[in-house]
Amino acid sequence: MRKIRKGDEVVVLTGKDKGKRGTVLRVLEEKLVVEGVNRVRKAVKPNPMRGTTGGFQDKDMPIHLSNVALFNAATGKGDRVGIKTLEDGRTVRFFKSNGEVLNA
User: What average pLDDT does the segment 68-72 reach?
Assistant: First the structure.
């Protein structure tokens, strides 16, 4: 079970976007693509076959998993996440600071 999944809200801990919050768009092996984080401008060539024009395009690039933390709404900060098994056999994620179980 992954600790951070697609659709989770995360906080960036280090780098040029430190402190920014965003939603996880994609999960790669050890990296995440987060909405509005690690944004770069890419030059795009025109392609008349597809009908696209050339120019610059803003694109979200991946950020390493260790540089983000899951956002805890109760504390208003990023928090560490653990995994535990409940009595009924379900495996769930929980916040390490207050033990609150994430809706999974």
Answer: 96
Q: Could you tell me which residues are beta bridge partners of residue 21?
A: 11
Closest by CA position to 28, among listed 18, 17, 38: 38
Residues 78-87: pLDDT tens digits? 999 999 999 9
> Considering the entire predicted model, what is its pTM?
0.83
Burial pattern 4-43, b for ≥16 Cβ within 10 A else e, equals beeebbbbbeeeebeebbbebeebeeebbbbeebbeeeee
Structural domains present in the chain: 9-75 (2.30.30.30)
Q: Which residue has the tokens 């991946």?
A: 62
Q: What share of the chain is helix, strand, coil (3-state, %, to 5)?
A: 5, 50, 50
